[in-house]
């Protein structure tokens, strides 16, 4: 016969192990908060934006669909050029060699939105001022070097990077929220596991369920205090009988 578990039994299991669930959840919250606030180093992010657009002379039309498509097709190439070792080594030189080209490659991200002529150079660093400096130096070096590399002059610095004093990671409150959910899941899972491994019989209901017969009687547990009171009553009765006999 297949054994089924009712919702009431599930709730009873959770109620019986509620202290364990709360303890595990609080531990996860405290560990996550301590790591996020005190152990992880804050990382800051700054972004410099570039506009890929050929400059116009007085006699040229202001809008050319074919030229815009060409600029859009060049953006992927420009992204690779910005991350090339040639550019990054020059940026490293502009920074007096304080950051190597390989380190710059790991900190710089180049991107753009679909069908947009605006490119973004995003830098992450543990120092907000340094992040803005790297982003601006990378934009300046690329703007200057792309003229020689591609033989075109169609890159303009649209928005210089500024130091952002709000770290992008870690996110302590998000980490704590995730830790709370994980702690609850672990606590509930452990509560059901302990209940599944516990094969002892504790109540009359469990006896009836296991044997399939009704319980006719039960023996109450006698605590030490009740036993002491019973002994005192017996001794008192003995003394009274002794006095009557005497």
From TrEMBL:
**Domain named Tyrosine-protein kinase G-rich: residues:** 143-194
Q: What is this protein called?
A: Capsular polysaccharide biosynthesis protein
Do you know which InterPro entries this protein is assigned to? Bact_polysacc_biosynth/exp, GNVR, LPS_length_determ_N, P-loop_NTPase
Q: Which family does it belong to?
A: Belongs to the CpsC/CapA family.
Molecular function terms from GO: protein tyrosine kinase activity
Pinpoint the Polysaccharide chain length determinant N-terminal domain residues.
3-94
- Name one cellular component (GO) term: plasma membrane
Subcellular localization(s) per the UniProt record: Cell membrane
Bilayer topology = Multi-pass membrane protein
Look up keyword Secreted and say if it applies: no
Q: Which residues cross the membrane?
A: 20-40, 173-194
Q: Where mainly located?
A: membrane
The keyword Ligase is annotated on this UniProt entry = no
* UniProt-annotated stretches for the region Disordered: 224-246
A Pfam family annotated for this UniProt entry? Wzz
> Which keywords describe this protein according to UniProt?
Cell membrane, Membrane, Transmembrane, Transmembrane helix
Q: Which domain of life is it from?
A: Bacteria
